[in-house]
Amino acid sequence: MSWIEKTDNWLEGLGESRRRRQLKSKKAPEPEVVYTVKEIANILKVNRNTVLKWIETDVLGPEDYFRLPGGYLRIRHSALMKLMNQI
């Protein structure tokens, strides 16, 4: 019997610890769907510069997009839905 099996048996004998129950109950958050400026432009059939102008003129607010460390923009799925309703 390996030490892992011995440890598991010992823990079972004690019952599940609170920490172990918490770890089991926590689920990883769903990854957020994001798009590049080019993808948004292609989906909405507009020019890439139009999407950038929407960001500059606050059609897309700060909660709708974020920048990666290299300065690249990513636009959230909720912003795409908002734009589709406006167009």
Which key features would you list for this structure?
three-stranded antiparallel beta sheet; 10% strand; Multidrug-efflux Transporter Regulator, Chain: A, Domain 2; 87 residues; mainly alpha; 54% helix
What do you see in this structure?
By secondary structure, the chain is mainly alpha-helical. It has a domain at 34-86: Orthogonal Bundle (Multidrug-efflux Transporter Regulator, Chain: A, Domain 2). The chain has helices at residues 3-14, 18-25, 37-44, 48-56, 77-86, and strands spanning 34-35, 65-67, 73-76. A 3-stranded antiparallel β-sheet has the order 1-3-2. Strand 2 and strand 3 (73-76) form a beta hairpin. Helix 3 packs across helix 4 (48-56). It is elongated. It starts with a helix and ends with a helix. 7% of the residues are buried.
In short:
The protein has a domain at 34-86: Orthogonal Bundle (Multidrug-efflux Transporter Regulator, Chain: A, Domain 2). The chain is 54% helix and 10% strand. It is built from five helices and three strands, in the order ααβααββα.
Write the layout of secondary structure elements.
Blueprint: H1 3-14, H2 18-25, E1 34-35, H3 37-44, H4 48-56, E2 65-67, E3 73-76, H5 77-86
Antiparallel strand pairs: 1-3, 2-3
Helix pairs in contact: 3-4
Please list the strands of the largest sheet in the order they lie side by side.
Answer: 1-3-2
Beta content: 5-15%
Order of helices and strands: HHEHHEEH
Q: How would you characterize the largest beta sheet?
A: 3 strands, antiparallel
Please report the first level of CATH classification, the CATH class of the domain at 34-86: Mainly Alpha
Based on DSSP secondary structure assignment, what is the total number of beta strands?
Answer: 3
